[in-house]
Amino acid sequence: MKQLFCSFIVLLIAAGSFGQLSNKSIYGNNKEAGKYYDIRGFKMYCEVYGEGQPLLIIHGNGGSISNFELNIPYFSKKYKTIIADSRAQGNSKDPGDSLSYEMMADDYAALLTAMHIDSAYVIGWSDGGINALLLAMRHPEKVKKLAATGANLLPDNTAVYQEVWDMVTPEYKILKDKKNKSEREKEGWKLLRLLCEEPHIPAASLNKVKCPALIIGGDHDVIKVEHTMLIAQSIPRSYLWILPNSGHSTPVVYKDLFNAAVDDFFSKPYRVIAKAGRFN
Questions:
Q1: Where on the phi/psi map is residue 109: left (φ > 0), alpha (ψ -120 to 50), or beta?
Q2: Which residues make Cβ contacts (< 8 Å) with residue 123, sequence separation at least 6?
Q3: SS3 state at 114
């Protein structure tokens, strides 16, 4: 079977949206910066760059540390930049059958604890954005502020465009019905099932996100703009940022603007804008 379209990241690579990323990134296989942590039943691979306030960066479904090669150099100049391969992805192998966003959010909380980090700023992209939201909901003490781009709350066409589902579901149906999966197919199936069957996060539950949040999307993202707006509106202290002429790859296509805006958000106090302040 051909390589599975098991994630938004893979779909975007197939479409050429990651043309600015190199195939020879040092990130993701840097022995000097990398270390394995024994947490929650598997070895989680993590790399750390720079010094300063802790910043945790979380990649998307089927992705890896290297997806942020255009962002790590910027943030590592100011922050202790922590980026890991999520469970069952990259170098973080996991032979188990189960995989959920809640499980991965708990993994990241355990990683911070293992690194003796009380709390961190958090950036999440795509499934990493979902993980960032759940981390703030399930472990609020771990998150100072979060920036999430391309996240969704539901696995349906209220959140994701039908044309995107039409690209993903054929492989999903084939693997769902296949009885004797190879090891590679089992690995892909875990991620594909996660993509097509989860998450299920009620918008009202986002009131558990107590930290300030910057919710980001492209105006031509795979996630509908109105769904990104719903996420922002459901978080008590949030800003909304929709980038023009952009799909799902906001940290890549708008790397300089993305890096600077997220850094600015982390650096400044959250501002309540109301009443006369709305005219400013």
A1: alpha
A2: 55, 56, 57, 58, 71, 75, 132, 146, 147, 148, 251, 262
A3: helix
Cα gap 155→14, rounded to integer Å: 21
Mean pLDDT of 1-28: 50
The total of other beta-carbon atoms located within 10 Å of residue 279's CB is 6
CATH number listed for the domain at residues 8-268: 3.40.50.1820
Contact 17, 252 (CB under 8 A): yes
Q: pTM for this structure? A: 0.92
Q: What pLDDT digit, counting tens, does each position of 207-238 carry?
A: 999 999 999 999 999 999 999 999 999 999 99
Query: In angstroms, rounded to a whole number, what is the distance separating the alpha carbons of residues 151 and 50?
Result: 27
- Which 3 state secondary structure label does DSSP give 128? helix
List, in sequence order, every beta strand (DSSP E) within 40-182. 42-49, 53-58, 79-84, 120-125, 143-149
In eight-state DSSP terms, residue 115 is: T
CA distance 40 to 146: 24
Work out the pLDDT band at 13, boundaries 50, 70, 90. Answer: very low
Write the DSSP string, 189-218.
HHHHHHHHH-----GGGGGG--S-EEEEEE
